[in-house]
Amino acid sequence: MTTTAHPHGPRPRQRAAFFVATVLAAIALGSACGSDDGGQTTADPQSAATAGTGAEQSGQTGSAGAAECQSDAECLMQAEALVDAGGGVVRLARCAEVSCEIIVERDEGCVTRSGTVHDCALSDSQILDADAKSSAVVSCDEAQASSGAVGTCVETSVTPTEYYPRDSAEWQGMLVEKLDAPCEDFCGMALSCRQMICQPCTRDEDCLQGEGCALDHCLLLDRLHCRSYTDCGAGELCILSGYTGGTARANEDMCAYCNGGGGGPATTPCQ
Length: 271
Description:
The protein has 271 residues and is of the alpha+beta class. The chain has 5 helices and 12 strands. The chain has a 4-stranded antiparallel sheet with strand order 1-2-3-4, sandwiched between helices. A two-stranded parallel ribbon has the order 5-6. Strands 7-8 form a two-stranded antiparallel sheet.
C-alpha cells in the first residue's frame, strides 16, 4: 500500500503525539538534573537546621552538654590559682571526663581541688582515688578558706544542746532538753503537758493521775521514794533510775531514790 505524505507536514493526530512525547522527555530530563546535580544533593533547609540542633544537643559543639573543663590549659590556670592562694607547685593539672584533676604540692602535703591534703608519697591516681572517696563538702574554717579550695563548704560549728535548768544542789543527771514539742494532754519521756508544750514538771499536779513529780519527771507514785536531795540523808542525792524502753510514757519502771551517799547502797532501793 502506498502512503502519500501530507503536503503541509504531519497530520493533527501525529502532531499531538509528538507534543506529548516531547513534554515527557523534558520532565524526565529535569528530574535527573535535580537529583544528580554532579553527585551532590541539595539539603532541605529545615532538615539542615534539625541536624545542626542534634549535633549541639550531643555536646559536640561545646554548648549546654559540654563538660566542666575543655582543655588541660584551663585546668592549669585553676592549679596556678591554688598556688597563688596558698603556695606550692603544680604537680598535676589535666582535664578529665568530668572536671579538672589538680594536685598541688605544698609543705603540708599534696592538696587536691577539693582542698583535702594527702600524703605526697602516694601516686597521682592514689591521691585522686582517696580524694574521690572523701566528702565533697569541706569546712569553712580559716584554714580551708586560706587554702583556696574549690567547692562547697559548710559551717562546722554545732549549736550546743540546751536543757532546762535544775537547782545546782540537785542531781544533774537526766536533764530535760528544750525541744518544745507540742502536745494536747500527754507527753513521752515522763514529761508533763502544760500550755500545749511538753516540758518538765514542777509539782505533782503537772503530771497524770497516779503520778508524782521528782527532778523534772513524772513518776508512778509507788516508785517515788524521794523528790529532792532534801528528802535524803546528809551527802545523799535523789536520783532517777532511768527511762522505761518501748513504752509511750517511758516512766513505768522509773524510780526516784536516794543514792546512799556518793554512790553507796541506796537508802530506799527500788523494787
